[in-house]
Amino acid sequence: MDEDIQTGQGAAKEQIRENMAPRRRDVWLLGSVAIVVGLLMVIETAGLVKAADAASPTPAAIEGPYFKPNSPKRTSLLELGITGTKFVLTGRVLSTAGKPIAGARLDFWQADGKGEYDNVGYKLRGHQFADQAGRYRLETIVPGEYGSRPRHLHVKVQASNGPVLATQLFFPGDRRDFIFNLDLVVKVQEAADGKVATFDFILDVK
Ligand code: FE
Questions:
Q1: Do 118 and 32 have their domain in common?
Q2: Measured in angstroms, how far is the CA atom of residue 47 from the centroid of ligand 1?
Q3: CA separation (Å) from 59 to 158, 164, 173?
Q4: Alpha-helical runs (H) found in the chain
């Protein structure tokens, strides 16, 4: 009898172990999955934080041969004798951390509607300073193509005492040459009296 009872209890314990074993495995599996999901969330969050607080600086582009120092200080390059499609470009100058760079200097120069630069005087050349919010506004005309070059504006952007970023801005849908860069294409909209566009410059400063 004792033997039978012992055997019976042993079998019952064995049955309980059998029933428990899969549950322990499930719990262990669930725990492992939770840890992996948790780790992935931490990695993703870290990535998002990094993306939010560090934008890539605006790429440089070749300065070219037509820059002239000492351009007049002005926000409008429109003057008597300048013909073409009116073009208003606005945007901000920001740091890689997204902070406005108040007082940043922007020096623009460009070809006229026929693709010609004024290398004698200062037509279609001018510099200005970003306001307290880092904003700038340029009033000009759409530059013409010349040679193999797509339409482009040249610009030098500089935070006070910072390095000079010399680059070029392009128009969407234009032909591409070796200087063309999709990161330097302005966002354009048609306006009643020409075109309006936006572009934010991001300087490699904190
Ligand atoms: Fe040019």
A1: no
A2: 38
A3: 13, 12, 19
A4: 2-53
Residue 192 shares a structural domain with residue 100: yes
3 is written with which tokens? Answer: 């033997």
Coil, helix or strand at residue 124: coil
| CB contact at 8 A, 79 and 125 | no
Q: How many Å lie between the centroid of ligand 1 and the Cα of residue 147?
A: 10
What's the 153 CA to ligand 1 centre distance in angstroms? Answer: 7
What residue numbers bound the domain in which 17 lies? Answer: 1-52
Beta strand segments in the chain, E = 86-95, 105-110, 125-129, 135-141, 152-158, 164-170, 187-191, 194-198, 201-203
Give me Rg for the CA atoms of the chain.
32
The domain total for the chain is 2
Whole-number Å distance, alpha carbon 66 to ligand 1 midpoint, is 7
- At 5-60, the pLDDT tens digits run 445 555 555 555 555 555 666 656 666 666 655 555 655 555 554 445 679 999 99
Residue 2 and residue 13: Cα distance in Å, rounded?
16
